[in-house]
Design a protein that fits this description.
There is one protein chain. With about 350 residues, this protein is α/β, with parallel strands linked by helices. The protein folds into two domains: about 100 residues, CBS-domain (Roll), CATH 3.10.580.10; about 220 residues, Spore Coat Polysaccharide Biosynthesis Protein SpsA, Chain A (Alpha-Beta Complex), CATH 3.90.550. Helix content is about 25%, strand content about 25%. The chain has eleven helices and 18 strands. The two termini are about 30 Å apart.
Length: about 350
């Protein structure tokens, strides 16, 4: 039998894709080993496997085996598992017996991350909003400088991009802009920043018009309160492969209704009852990959939300697509309750 600690990394083949995603988020290793009820190995499911399955037209309510990778690496001994794991930085190596029954899982006790592949594209950060959802903190500090642990959120964002060698930062500012610029004046040398100052509030998209003629290549565009823990290189490859003008990164959010839900028919008849149902939907993270021609379609000085800009591109018949990520890969500090969740995720406390 598998010990209780490893059970959280194992799911049986009667799960749905949705249920498996929840299990992956819960174990925070990004993977679930799929077995039969008798512990016979079937395959593995990672965040990437789920993403590929959903992008190919799969559904969350489908059986997990339809999305499972059935060609995963396995080992017959601990030493073999260690050797395999560290050769290619795998997430996990299942140990199996001669009948492919799973007996253990090697998760890499001293795992070291491989360097991220360099992307070398600009990053545009919209940091001009008032951050009203984070009042009263934002009465004193601009939202990008609200601390999460030892660093303000904007530095967490920038350092994450720097892991992929994205070094050119365009920051759009407005509210309390002098405090923003003053903070980074004391951090000269750490970041290559080009400032763009709004004269009036231009929404989550309008400030991009300040970059017309100044940016000539694919770029990341992000709000200043979101941190993405996914593989940025995979996002860019997806964007390029599909020749998108905008790729919107969206996260699956799972919500459980704390009540019994009743659907009513004619004359008050009960058509269906569900006890505390769960719903999953895609939500916009506020992080995008954008082509520079999108800016040319925008009108200068007009306040507009970037989702409306995306809608304009769709109306023109241009390629716009969603890159889905799990709820666990997206950290949003736009509301006070999320600040502590983000801190724990980043610092492990």
């Amino acid at each position: 039998m598998i010990n209780s600690e490893l059970q959280k990394f194992i799911g049986h083949d009667n799960l749905t894709v949705f249920q498996a995603m929840q299990r992956i988020d819960a174990n925070e290793h990004g993977i679930l080993i799929i077995t039969s009820p008798s512990d016979k190995l079937i395959g593995s499911l990672s965040d990437g496997d789920v993403r590929r399955y959903l992008l190919s037209g799969g559904r969350l309510e489908d059986n997990v085996t339809l999305a499972t990778n059935k060609h995963l690496k396995t080992a017959y001994s601990y030493d073999e598992a260690v050797s395999l794991f560290h050769k290619k930085n795998y997430i996990a190596i299942p140990l199996v017996d001669e009948n492919r029954n799973i007996v253990s899982i090697y998760l890499g006790n001293e795992r070291t991350e491989l360097p991220k592949p360099p992307i070398h594209i600009p990053v545009v950060i919209n940091a001009g909003g008032k951050g009203t959802r984070l009042e009263p903190y934002t009465k004193i500090l601009p939202k990008p400088l609200i601390p999460v642990g030892e660093l303000p959120i904007i530095e967490h964002i920038m350092r994450r991009f720097q892991e992929y060698d994205c070094q050119e930062f365009h920051i759009i500012v407005n509210y309390k802009k002098q405090i923003m610029k003053g903070y980074f004046a004391e951090n000269e040398g750490k970041y290559n920043i080009i400032w763009h100052e709004e004269e009036k509030m231009l929404g989550t998209g309008g400030g991009l018009t300040l970059l017309k003629g100044k940016i000539h290549e694919t770029f990341f565009f992000t709000n200043c309160d979101n941190l993405l823990m996914s593989d940025y290189d995979s996002v860019i490859r997806f964007h390029k492969k599909n020749q998108n003008v905008v790729t919107m990164i969206c996260a699956y959010k799972n919500i459980q209704i704390p009540y019994g839900v009743v659907e009513m028919g004619m004359n008050g008849s009960i058509e269906e009852m569900k006890e505390k149902p769960q719903f999953s939907f895609l939500t916009n993270t506020g992080i995008y990959v954008v082509e520079p021609e999108v800016l040319e379609d925008m009108e200068d000085g007009i306040a507009i939300g970037f989702p409306d800009v995306v809608g304009m591109q769709i109306a023109k018949g241009r390629n716009v697509a969603v890159y889905p990520v799990s709820e666990n890969e997206w950290l949003d500090m736009g509301q006070l309750p999320e600040l502590e969740r983000m801190r724990k995720k980043l610092y492990g406390e």
